[in-house]
Amino acid sequence: MRSSGRAEVAARISGTVEAPVVSGTALLTDGRLRSFALPHALESLNGIVTFTATGVNVDGLRGRVAGGPVSFAGRIGLAGYQLSEFDVTASATGMRLRFPEGMRSVVDAELSLRGPATAPVLGGTVTVESAVWSRPFDTSGGLFDLGGASDAIPAVEGALSEAPAGRLRYDIRLLAPSTLRIENDQSRIVASADVNLQGTYDRPVVLGRAEIERGEVRFEGRRYW
């Protein structure tokens, strides 16, 4: 994790070393927070963070992720020097994502992070405004082998399992109303999806449906549509 930016803090610390009590505010200006396990950073972070005896209030905190604006609300609970619980919501629009490799998408999201710090749940809805897969398929491993993308999965899994994100559980609905496209030298496909992502990163559970609405595929000299 790497962070940068400016913070003007006005705070009062009381209590004991073992059980400190912090109250006050911090004005964040042009902050940036980057996890090496994730492809995009939280940038242009601005707003006032309020400290109380039991946590941190982030109402009105704003920033940008992948070029899209994001706003936060809620609180992060503290017990001494440790995070104790999350009750935070985030609303983002127009995020231009570049993950996984070969995929470019624009998405909106209404997400929440709630629960104890040891086992938080990331929930909400992600709406795909557009998504295009342009990387050629590796037909040596099968028609839908995504160009060796599986080789990168163990490294990403390891990074996330060691990071705080590795403790997350998911309860996210993904909506893509005729906005998923595959466009490469082998395929031209338009698809829709309405699925729920549950479970954890290393044991994900995907429930729902995905439909190919139209398109064509060229495979071993033949055309399928």
Beta fraction: over 45%
What is the N-to-C succession of helices and strands?
EEEEEEEEEHEEEE
Secondary structure class reads mainly beta
The biggest sheet amounts to:
13 strands, mixed
Tally of contiguous helical segments: 1
Helix content: under 10%
Low-confidence stretches: 141-164
Radius of gyration: 21 Å
What is the residue-mean pLDDT, rounded to a whole number? Answer: 84
Mass-distribution shape: elongated
Q: Termini separation (Å)?
A: 46 Å
Number of DSSP-assigned strands: 13
Question: What this model shows, in words?
Answer:
The chain has one helix and 13 strands, in the order E-E-E-E-E-E-E-E-E-H-E-E-E-E. With 225 residues, the chain is mostly beta strands. Helix content is 4%, strand content 66%. Strands 1, 2, 3, 4, 5, 6, 7, 8, 9, 10, 11, 12 and 13 form a 13-stranded mixed beta sheet that branches.
Secondary-structure topology with pairs:
Elements: E1 2-15, E2 20-34, E3 42-51, E4 55-57, E5 62-65, E6 68-79, E7 82-97, E8 103-116, E9 121-133, H1 153-162, E10 169-183, E11 187-199, E12 204-219, E13 222-224
Parallel strand pairs: 9-10
Antiparallel strand pairs: 1-2, 2-3, 3-4, 3-5, 4-6, 5-6, 6-7, 7-8, 8-9, 10-11, 11-12, 12-13
